[in-house]
Amino acid sequence: MIIGSRKLYYEKLSSTNTMAATLIRKGNISEGTIIHAGFQYSGKGQAGNKWESEEGKNLLISIILYPTVVKADMQFLISKVISLGIVDFLMQFTSEVSIKWPNDIYVKGDKISGILIENTIVRNEIEHTVAGIGINVNQTRFPEDIPNPTSLKIVTGKEHDLKECLTSLAKSLDSRYKQLLYERISQINRDYISYLYQFNVWCEFNDSKGIFEGKIVSVSDIGRLQIEDRRGRIYEFGFREVDFL
Ligand code: BTN
Fold this sequence. Notes:
binds biotin
C-alpha cells in the first residue's frame, strides 16, 4: 500500500494542504502519507475559495505524492486518478456518482466532494503533489451560499463511521494510483470519461461569448474540456472558461 501507508491525524489545523506542504518542506515524509484533520480553520477550495466543513463530520485529507512517472504537461492524470479513487469509494453507497469536470464529485446533481491538487513543478517534472480531498460524510446542514451540497448521510439516510470511511477511501485511491504507476493510462482515461457528468448529453453552457448549446465529447490529455456545438464544431475550454447551466 502506498496511499495510506502512514496517517497523521490533527484535531484542528488551518488546512491539511498547508500542513502537507510544510511537512514536505521539512523533508523525510514518505509517499502516500495522509494528513487528516477533524477541523480546518482555513480550508482551501479551488480558485482561492474557502472549503467549509462542520467539525468532526466530514473527511478532510491531503495525500503526499511523488509521481515521478507523470511529466508536468500530463499532470491532469493525477486529477483523474484522485477523482476515480473517490468515485470508486462512493460507488459502495450509491451508483449515481459522477465527475463534474474538472474534478468535482457529484451524486445525482449535487456536490459531495471537492479536490484541490497542488503540484510543485521543476522543469517538466512534478517534484511533489499535495492532493487535498474534502468529502461530505455526516453533515446535513450547509451554509446558504454553498450552491448544491450533499453528503453521504443525505444520500444514504445513515450516519457513517469516519475512520472506516478513511480506510476504505485510502484503499480505493491506492488502487487507482497504482494504475497510474503501472501506466494503465488508457484505462484511466476510459473510466474518467465513463463517469463524466453530462457526457454526450445536449445541454446549455456559458462561456465568455454567452450561452450556447453543446455536448461534452471528450477531455484532452492536458485536461481541457471538449464541447461539440449543434454545427459539429468542437471547442476546447480550460478551467473556469466555461460554466454548466
Ligand atoms: C473545491 O473547491 O471543490 C476543492 C475543495 C478541496 C477541499 C479539501 S479539504 C482537505 C484539503 N485541505 C484543504 O484546505 N482543502 C482540501
